[in-house]
């Protein structure tokens, strides 16, 4: 059994029902919109975010998932899908998970409007059912994701990112949505409990580890979703590069900044940067940080009795840093 199937096994019935409910939550009176949302639903990813919602809900409540849990999972998937659609427009990307992106097929204007539609659908799903506690969790995540993206753009222009600023960027950009999944799961079955904040922290730690793993892919050859050196070409400041910039001498630092700023399209120079970062221990340092986030996340799970749901969450935490793409 594949790892993702193993993780999903204790909640497989919930996930089947969720897919049906999620499809229904996207429906519209507009034929074009239904055609586009049908395209989205049939090209779904691993659906890790709804899995977090169900696993956390069932772990903290001795195996209970209710209507609020299903709505929470649908909301998070609607919001996540909306951000992916908008990201593809922002990045001018024509592919998503090996398929054409919405903006490639239907142009930017329609893609932006579909993203807005999905976002409003998600918010209304909470409002219509008086899930205001869940709505607050989601709304904070959306705000933070936008702030994280803009903070990254602002800092990338000057390449003056410190390690602390980097952690703040990835916390907002990546970790905040996974944190929202986990706190939503807890809040759906145990509102106002300690579990809500504990699980938010748990999700945040996994998100941090997940993003650092993504950073490391930029320096390794393998069957991953993006080619090596793409972050350098896009002038993205990732942890291995930040560590190297902070530990090398002034001459090396100038060469490194110049390479990333002015020679990021030169394949030979990009490969030299990758080799230099490896030589200076940037990858080892980033790996250590990733593992420390992972261990901290695993410790938070020890607050709960052993169960199939806890086992799956532990598997998920390990999968995040062991995955090959």
Characterise this structure.
The protein has 325 residues and is mainly alpha-helical. Helices cover 75% and strands 1% of the residues. It has 15 helices and two strands. The protein has helices spanning 3-8, 12-25, 31-41, 48-60, 67-90, 102-128, 132-156, 163-189, 194-217, 230-233, 239-247, 250-262, 267-279, 282-301, 308-322; strands at 95-96, 99-100. The chain has a two-stranded antiparallel ribbon. α5 (67-90) packs antiparallel against α8, α9 (194-217) runs parallel beside α15 and α14 (282-301) packs antiparallel against α15. It is globular and about 60 Å long.
In brief:
The chain is mainly alpha-helical. The protein has helices at 3-8, 12-25, 31-41, 48-60, 67-90, 102-128, 132-156, 163-189, 194-217, 230-233, 239-247, 250-262, 267-279, 282-301, 308-322; strands at residues 95-96, 99-100.
Main sheet overview = 2 strands, antiparallel
- Number of E strands: 2
Structural class: mainly alpha
Mean residue pLDDT: 87
What fraction, in percent, of the residue positions are helical? over 70%
SSE run: HHHHHEEHHHHHHHHHH
Rg estimate, integer Å: 20 Å
- Give the overall shape: globular
Unreliably modeled segments: none
Features:
2 strands, two-stranded antiparallel ribbon, single chain, 15 helices, 325 residues, mainly alpha
Give the SSE layout:
Layout: H1 3-8, H2 12-25, H3 31-41, H4 48-60, H5 67-90, E1 95-96, E2 99-100, H6 102-128, H7 132-156, H8 163-189, H9 194-217, H10 230-233, H11 239-247, H12 250-262, H13 267-279, H14 282-301, H15 308-322
Antiparallel strand pairs: 1-2
């Amino acid at each position: 059994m594949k790892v993702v199937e193993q993780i999903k096994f204790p909640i497989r019935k919930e996930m089947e029902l969720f897919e049906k409910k999620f499809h229904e939550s996207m429906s519209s009176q507009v034929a074009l919109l239904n055609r586009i949302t049908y395209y989205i639903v049939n090209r779904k990813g691993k659906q890790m975010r709804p899995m977090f919602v169900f696993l956390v809900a069932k772990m903290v409540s001795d195996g209970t998932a209710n209507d609020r849990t299903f709505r929470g999972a649908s909301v998070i998937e609607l919001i996540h899908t909306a951000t992916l659609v908008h990201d593809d427009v922002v990045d001018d990307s024509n592919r998503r998970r090996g398929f054409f992106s919405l903006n490639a097929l239907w142009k930017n204007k329609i893609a932006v409007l579909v993203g807005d539609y999905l976002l409003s659908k998600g918010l209304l799903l909470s409002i219509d059912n008086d899930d205001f506690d869940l709505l607050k969790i989601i709304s904070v995540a959306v705000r933070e994701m936008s702030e994280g993206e803009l903070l990254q753009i602002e800092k990338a222009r000057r390449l003056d990112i410190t390690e602390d600023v980097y952690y703040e960027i990835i916390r907002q950009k990546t970790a905040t949505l996974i944190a929202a999944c986990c706190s939503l799961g807890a809040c759906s079955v145990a509102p106002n409990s300690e579990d809500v904040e504990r699980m938010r922290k748990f999700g945040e730690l996994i998100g941090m580890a997940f993003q650092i793993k993504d950073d490391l892919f930029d320096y390794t050859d393998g069957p991953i979703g993006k080619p090596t050196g793409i972050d350098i070409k896009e002038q993205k400041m990732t942890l291995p590069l930040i560590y190297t910039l902070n530990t090398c001498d002034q001459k090396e630092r100038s060469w490194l900044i110049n390479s990333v700023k002015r020679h990021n399209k030169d394949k030979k120079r990009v490969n030299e940067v990758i080799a230099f970062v490896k030589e200076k221990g940037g990858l080892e340092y980033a790996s250590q940080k990733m593992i420390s986030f992972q261990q901290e996340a695993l410790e938070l799970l020890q607050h709960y009795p052993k169960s199939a749901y806890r086992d799956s969450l532990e598997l998920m935490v390990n999968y995040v840093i062991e995955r090959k793409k």
